[in-house]
UniProtKB/TrEMBL annotation:
This is tryptophan synthase. GO terms for cellular component: cytoplasm. It catalyses: (1S,2R)-1-C-(indol-3-yl)glycerol 3-phosphate + L-serine = D-glyceraldehyde 3-phosphate + L-tryptophan + H2O. GO terms for molecular function: L-serine hydro-lyase (adding indole, L-tryptophan-forming) activity; pyridoxal phosphate binding; tryptophan synthase activity. Tetramer of two alpha and two beta chains. Belongs to the TrpB family.
Amino acid sequence: MTEQKIPYKIYLSEDEIPTQWYNLRADMINKPAPLLNPGTHEPLKAEELAPIFCEELVQQELDDTTAYIDIPEEIQEYYKTYRPSPTMRAYHLEKALGTPAKIYYKFEGNNTSGSHKLNSALAQAYYAKKQGLKGVTTETGAGQWGTALSMACAYFGLDCKVFMVKVSYEQKPFRREVMRTYGADVTPSPSETTEVGKKILAEHPGTTGSLGCAISEAVEVATTHEGYRYVLGSVLNQVLLHQSVIGLEAKAALDKYGVTPDIIIGCAGGGSNLGGLIAPFMGQKIRGEQDYRIIAVEPASCPSFTRGKFAYDFCDTGMICPLAKMYTLGSGFIPSPNHAGGLRFHGMSTVLSQLYADGLMEATSVEQTSVFEAAEYFARTEGILPAPESSHAIRAAIDEALKCKETGEEKTILFGLTGTGYFDMVAYENYHNGTMTDYIPTDEDLAQGFAGIPQFPGNEF
């Protein structure tokens, strides 16, 4: 029997776009640890989260039991402007590598924001509008989340205030201008516009900022301005829920051709893309229906999984947010300024952290020059200019494919290509000019961050 020819692009039809998000927590045997009140160290109740997040998003954040949650019709309608996104067969990359491995990637860069972030931005803006709010505040690092949220807010008629990590604000002016085009107010963080920003600047003069700093500022503005709530682009349970459309579509596309991946790879910063891509596959693995090797890939300069501590920690530098149990480098950890590859958050999603602690997935860290080498190789073979964040997954996928070349195994590899790199040309320029360097924090560097992790009974690490 002749093997069915797999197309370069596997497209689903519009009526095959998921109409429900999949909540992986419902199938997890060990649920992610609850968020804690930083003052009492007691699990947070819905009413304590209500001043920060939208009401329905609070319910999604705390729901560990409902497996499928309906996607509101208004969100489904907007999804149709860029979904379903294609699942691609990397024939040219396979040929160039000379590998017997079969490589697939789920491409989420086919919208103006250039990434998967729009999947959750639309949901969070929708719930804010439904609640009758005036606007939302957020942080952004590389700028993809800020861009996506500004688009969603423009669509739903909401005010959008973005605190952008200062080093990215300066290095990525065009990403900043896209946000402003969609109506967002963009402030470099840390800034003098908030009390916590002033405090961070006083303690760290000249700092290039971090996502932890920007989160603190965004939360302060949301909680001190009537009619505003804070929204986050990664890490939170609700975000991983919304991003499950990535994995649901990828699995549906592969199922059409009877393809089952052996290895699933995603870049890991806070966890939104990785969590979304692996959701239905991990569900199968937990239920004992199928086994997959799942790999999280993070930067060696911000190695939360591979060198962090699994403990309750603050999600923000200003220590005003709830405590989350996650793999963390400490909320005061700020990546080296030469770190150009994105994925700058000091901690990891509580869902992914629990899965990693339970041995259901593995993690690896890669250095940024090798990441950009893989990005360039991918661009030259597959024709897509990848975002640096996604290129961490590309690096690992190439490495796994080369292992198959050595062993002769015909493994099937799926990875997430979550965004395009058109606004990351300063980083590409540094790579091409030979001025990009690798930075791996020493144990002493990491110890400074670990020292800031709160100490209390039950939080030993």
